[in-house]
UniProtKB/TrEMBL annotation:
<feature type="transmembrane region" description="Helical">
    <location>
        <begin position="201"/>
        <end position="225"/>
    </location>
</feature>
<comment type="function">
    <text>Putative odorant or sperm cell receptor.</text>
</comment>
<dbReference type="GO" id="GO:0004984">
    <property type="term" value="F:olfactory receptor activity"/>
</dbReference>
<dbReference type="Pfam" id="PF13853">
    <property type="entry name" value="7tm_4"/>
</dbReference>
<keyword id="KW-0297">G-protein coupled receptor</keyword>
<dbReference type="InterPro" id="IPR000276">
    <property type="entry name" value="GPCR_Rhodpsn"/>
</dbReference>
<feature type="transmembrane region" description="Helical">
    <location>
        <begin position="144"/>
        <end position="167"/>
    </location>
</feature>
<keyword id="KW-0552">Olfaction</keyword>
<keyword id="KW-0716">Sensory transduction</keyword>
<feature type="domain" description="G-protein coupled receptors family 1 profile">
    <location>
        <begin position="45"/>
        <end position="297"/>
    </location>
</feature>
<dbReference type="InterPro" id="IPR000725">
    <property type="entry name" value="Olfact_rcpt"/>
</dbReference>
<dbReference type="InterPro" id="IPR017452">
    <property type="entry name" value="GPCR_Rhodpsn_7TM"/>
</dbReference>
<feature type="transmembrane region" description="Helical">
    <location>
        <begin position="64"/>
        <end position="86"/>
    </location>
</feature>
<feature type="transmembrane region" description="Helical">
    <location>
        <begin position="29"/>
        <end position="52"/>
    </location>
</feature>
<dbReference type="GO" id="GO:0005886">
    <property type="term" value="C:plasma membrane"/>
</dbReference>
<comment type="similarity">
    <text>Belongs to the G-protein coupled receptor 1 family.</text>
</comment>
<feature type="transmembrane region" description="Helical">
    <location>
        <begin position="106"/>
        <end position="124"/>
    </location>
</feature>
Amino acid sequence: MLGLPYNHTTEAPATFILVGIPGLQSSHLWLAVSLSIMYTTALLANTLIVTIIWMDSTLQEPMYCFLCVLAAVDMVMASSVVPNMVSIFSSGDNTISFNACFTQMYLVHAATAVESGLLLAMAFDRYVAICKPLHYKRILTHRVMLEMTVIITIRATVFMTPLSWMVSHLPFCGSNVVLHSYCEHIAVAKLACADPRPSSLYSLIVSSIIVGSDVAFIAASYILILQAVFSLSSKNAQLKALSTCGSHVGVMALYYLPGMASIYVAWLGEDVAPLCTQVLLADLYLIIPPSLNPIIYGLRTKQIRKRTWGLLIHYLFNHSNLGSGIQALEQTRQLQRRPS
């Protein structure tokens, strides 16, 4: 047996207290400023990506639709933790209710699982576009794209709901101080009176299965893409394909490497890395990808970059014309008021 049976008669704490980053309390204000900047960047950039793709009828290909969903998921993932972190780091408001804690935990795990599936779907999209261009529209129809998105969401729900349920049903009869800046499941499970290893082991196994299978299929897709690219006779076509794939691989490395490092370091404990390093790594994993994804993935895409500049120029030009028109109207009114 891994531990004693759960005692469900134990009353759950009304709130948890999040300490932020243990050992780095003196840097909390600077962390609050940095997180605020990154969070604002993530919201603005991802909102811009969603708006441009949603409004432009020429950007309705599967790649852009997946990118739109990725931007939305990034905003959910960042919004589920960053405002609370900033509040902790800036004002010391570090309490979170029991239900809010486990809602946050579920949103973080579900969003990360959905994002992993979306990266796989986007890699498959690039494989079809480059390796089977004549069949692209026949293979990746809007119905197929919708089915892939639904399957990705169902997979995340099926795998991540049991984890939040397992941790929320542990008996909490001692301290309610969570040595983390958000409700990270291992940090919360350690407060339980029962053995937390079943939920922690479930998290490790499920994360390894999801990430391992997704990364394996992504790697296979890009190996086939590279083979197809280097068989092209045109150097310009090779460079264009490599540039596109390079940005995609950069986003995936940015997501998977810190994510898996965070999971395994938290599992292995302080023997591998100090607690402050574990917490900081987990925090950055949830805010850096949402901040950089729209820049690397979106604005490096030629069509989105053109639409972005076009939208900004259109807004500034119209705003300038509106200001000039208002000024001219005011001058006309002043002339009319002058006695003849």
